[in-house]
Design goal:
Blueprint: H1 2-16, E1 45-51, E2 56-63, E3 66-72, E4 75-82, E5 85-95, E6 98-108, E7 115-126, E8 135-147, E9 153-162, E10 173-181, E11 188-199, E12 202-203, E13 208-217, H2 229-238, E14 251-258, E15 264-269, E16 273-274, E17 280-283, E18 286-292
Antiparallel strand pairs: 1-2, 1-18, 2-3, 3-4, 4-5, 5-6, 6-7, 7-8, 8-9, 9-10, 10-11, 11-12, 11-13, 13-14, 14-15, 16-17, 17-18
């Protein structure tokens, strides 16, 4: 019975979405840094797995040089293309008896290189929801991207709302991520994440704030620099630990400041290891496995 409900959630999302909009990566490339080799590799490489001592954290599947699927311990991401450009992203997750599924469509600027927005429709099935056990909660979200004059990412502002068929839909909350990069625009050094209410077309004052600082960068290649920006942009919308994926190099220190009085500051440090071609082999508790195209 649970499998039938999970299938219903996925089918509902597919049926609820509109036709695809064209999208692509922020720099117009499907993958970056493909010409580097690690020891034993000949030709271009791709990131195949991220693992730790317990589990495989992520496995990346490709068709040709296109990233088409990402498998995580409890979730699956499917990516489809319109020609050479990412067209749609579907995400499915099952945690215990609960499940989440959503579909995202991306919109581009006139050059088809810069993402201007990602529209999202999704549903959660909560098997043990306190008020209505077994309820399916539908939602909608829109994620708007803005860039600096130097073309670096400036902000991602997300609006979210519950989609109740009995009521007129409206967005009720927002998340604003503000990015700061180094002078060379290669590494993100700070991300400020504000959360607040949204009503009557207006953004209310921030009610919660987290600040992420990334420092002590090396001069080696970040494994996620091989992934397309379109996928990374989607992943960091829900997982703030992926903010540093936007960087070319690897931060050895991450500091999180939670904006409460007094603020709570948490810092993480790591030592990286590298292969002969200067790609990280390990860091922040993960090991990275590359494969040749």
């Amino acid at each position: 019975m649970k499998k039938i409900i999970y299938l219903f959630v996925a089918l509902f999302i597919i049926a609820s979405t509109q036709s695809c909009k064209r999208l692509g990566d922020v720099d117009g490339d499907l993958l970056n840094n493909l010409d580097a080799n690690q020891g034993g590799l000949i030709g271009s490489r791709f990131l195949y797995q991220e693992v730790n001592s317990v589990d495989t954290l992520a496995e990346y599947h490709y068709t040709g040089k296109k990233l088409v699927e990402v498998l995580n311990p409890k979730s699956k991401t499917k990516i489809t293309y319109n020609g050479e450009l990412i067209n749609k992203l579907e995400f499915y997750e099952v945690v215990g008896a609960d499940s989440l599924a959503y579909i995202q469509y991306y919109t581009y600027d006139s050059t088809a290189k810069f993402i201007t927005s990602i529209s999202e429709v999704g549903a959660t099935y909560m098997a043990y929801k306190a008020v209505i056990p077994g309820a399916i909660v539908r939602y909608k979200a829109i994620h708007d991207f803005a860039y600096n004059t130097d073309k670096s990412l400036k902000t991602i502002r997300s609006r979210n709302g519950i989609d109740n068929p009995a009521l007129a839909f409206e967005y009720t909350s927002y998340v604003l991520n503000t990015f700061t990069f180094n002078t060379a625009k290669t590494n993100v050094t700070k991300v400020t994440r504000d959360v607040g209410p949204y009503a009557a077309g207006a953004f209310g004052p921030s009610t919660a704030q987290d600040i992420y600082d990334f420092s002590d960068y090396d001069d080696k290649f970040n494994p996620q620099s091989l992934l397309p920006f379109g996928y990374k942009a989607s992943a960091l919308l829900d997982d703030t630990s992926k903010f540093y994926w936007l960087s070319l190099n690897n931060p050895k220190r991450v500091t999180l400041t939670t904006g409460v009085a007094p603020p709570v500051v948490t810092s993480y440090n790591t030592n990286y290891t590298y292969d002969p071609q200067n790609y990280a082999l390990s860091g922040f508790g993960s090991n990275y496995d590359y494969r040749p195209f």
